[in-house]
Amino acid sequence: MENSLIQILIICAYIGVLFLISAYVKYRSSGSVENYVLAGRKLTTPLVMVSVVGLAVGGASTIGVAEQAYTKGLSAGWYTAAWGIGAIVMGLTVAKRYRRMNITTVPELLERYYGRNSMIAGIACQILQLVIMSLQFVAGGAILSALLPDFFTPLTGMLISAVVFIGITLIGGMWSASQSNLLNVTLQYIGITVASWIIVQLAGGMTNVALHMPSIHSLDFISGVGGMTITTWIVVLITVNLSLQAIIQISLGAKDVRTAQKGFIIGGLIMLPVGFL
């Protein structure tokens, strides 16, 4: 019980820090819609980078990939790598074009070039994408209920995840989300790296890990999930990176074209190895 209390205190402190960051940057998001939605178009390369990584490396890219890796092996990491490839493609192709446009949303772009009906269709598609992205809350609930079953059920954990995620964004808009991701992404990568090293050491090294793998394909980078599945992930997530409002919004918020490009490319490169870890 004592360990559970320590864990709940850590989680509460972490949530408190996120809300303090949001409150601190709130003033920067006031004054105009552009300040709130696009951070005044002043995001630097590091902020673009962590915003992209923070959006992609969520529950599905950590808990979901780890769960699939248990049966499929290292090849499950291609899901997160596909996110990275999509971000790199975004940076090399259309990120600069989006940044040059004086728009705030994808439906606005569709209305400008294709008319009002296209804008309505675009809004409908964005709503469907929002439902998919909300599945991250399910992963958050799974994490909290697994770590602290005495305090959280999957439902209450999911609700807490939703309140924190939505609350941070409501307080300070894009500024709040980007600044919070500086902390989130740093902790994610430190945690994943350290945990990977500790687990391998506790298992007796990679040689011993390989001997106890459930399948001969566990350490194969392709065979577990298969080349077709990997190709599908890459194609789909390239498409997502080029069309999802949340991702395009990051590009629109960059301070200039070059910043948008560099942020996406560096963010994509950073994402490539994390799924395999």
Task: Tell me what you see in this structure.
This protein is mainly α and 277 residues long. Helices cover 77% and strands 0% of the residues. The chain is built from 14 helices and no strands. It has helices at residues 2-25, 33-38, 45-56, 59-72, 78-92, 95-100, 106-114, 116-133, 135-147, 154-202, 206-211, 227-243, 245-253, 257-271. Helix 1 (2-25) packs across helix 10 (154-202) and helix 7 (106-114) runs antiparallel to helix 8. The longest helix has 49 residues, at 154-202. The radius of gyration is 20 Å and the shape is globular. The two termini are 31 Å apart. The model has no long low-confidence stretch (mean pLDDT 84).
Secondary-structure element series:
HHHHHHHHHHHHHH
Residue share in β-strands? under 5%
**What low-confidence regions span 5 or more consecutive residues with pLDDT below 50?**
none
Q: Sheet with the most strands?
A: none
Compute the CA-based radius of gyration: 20 Å
Q: What structural class is derived from the secondary structure elements?
A: mainly alpha
The number of E-state strands comes to 0
Shape: globular
Indicate the percent of residues in helices: over 70%
| Overall mean confidence score, pLDDT | 84
What distance separates the N and C termini?
Answer: 31 Å
Number of helices, counting only DSSP H or I runs of 4 residues or more: 14
Oligomer: single chain
